[in-house]
Known about the structure:
Elements: H1 15-26, H2 30-37, E1 41-45, H3 48-58, E2 62-66, H4 81-87, E3 92-95, H5 101-110, E4 115-117, E5 125-126, E6 166-167, H6 174-191, H7 196-220, E7 228-231, H8 237-242, E8 246-249, H9 261-273, E9 278-281, H10 288-297, E10 300-303, H11 319-334
Helix pairs in contact: 3-6, 6-7, 7-11
Amino acid sequence: MNVRRCISTTAVTGAAVLGLVTLSACGGSSESAEKDKNGKLDVVASFYPMQFLAEQIGGEKVSVSTLTKPGVEPHDLELKARQIADLGEADYILYLKGIQPAVDDAIKQAGVKNTVDAATLTTLETHGTGVDGHDSHEGEEAHAEESHAEEPHADEHGHEAEAGSADPHIWLDPVKYAEVAKGVGDSLAKADPDNAATYEKNTDELVKKLDALNTKFQQGLKNTTTKTFITTHSAFGYLAERYGLDQEGIAGLDPESEPSPARIKELQDTARKEKVTTVFFETLASDKTAKTLAKDTGLRTDVLDPLEGITERSKGADYFEVMESNLAALQKALGAK
C-alpha cells in the first residue's frame, strides 16, 4: 500500500526491459512489488509480541515483517543498515519502547507517520526485580502518551535496569495485552480506514481469547501450596501481580547477568521458607545460573517462557499455546490444587 515504494516510470517496451526497470524503481524484489499490488498495509513489528498482535488484528489486510528474527534475543538486537533504511518505507510501525534501545533509536529516525508505541496503550507499572531480596508489586506509574517520552524505561541490557524503572513486559499479562490489542486495532483502523471493519472484528475476537486466557490463569492459580517462584529473568512482574504471586528474579531484568553470592544466599533462604520447588529459566538465554542454583538447593528446573520469540524450542507455536504451557509449568511448580 505504500505508494512511495514504487515511483512511476516512463513506459518501456519489451517485457524483459520493463521487468528490470520495475525492480530498479522499487529498490527491492518482485515479492515486495507483489505485496504492494495486493494493496496490503506494510506493517513492521519490533519483536514477537508486537508481530503477533499485528498479524492477529491485521489478518489478510496487512503484510507483517519483524525486526527480530526467531531465535534472536530481542534485548541484544543490533539492526543492519538495510533494516534501518527499510523502516522509513513502512506504512505502519508497531513497537514497545524500552525493550530494544537500538530499535527505539531507529524508529525515531524513520519518521513514519503511523508509528505506535504499545507502551502508550496501557499503564506501565514499576516492579521490583527481585535482585534486592524482594519483589515489589507497588508503585504503579501512570503512563500517559503525552508524558511517555519523559518517563524512565528499564534498559534491558542491564546497564540502567534498576528497581523502580517502568516495567515493559506488559504482554505477559493477558489483561494488559488485551488493552494494547484494542489500541492497536484503533490505530490500524485510522491508518487504513477502508479496512476498519475488519480490524475491529479481528480485535474483538482477539480480546475475547485473551479474556478467556485470563480466566484460565485466575482459576488455575487460585489455590496453590506456595505463591513464590524463582526465575532467571525478572520479566513476570505483571503476571505475578495479576494472579497474586511473588516473583523472585535471580539476576534482575538482564537474563544474562550473574547474581552476587549474597543474592544466591537470599534465594536459597527464600526457597526453603516459601516451599519453592522449581527454578525457571527461558528458551532464548543461558540456563547455567538456574541449573546451578537448583542443584545447590535441591530444586527442579523448568521453562517459564517470557515469549520474546518463538523457536523450535518453544513449548507452543504461538502466544496462546506458550502462555498455556507457562500456566501448566506454574501450576506444577506452585502446587496448584
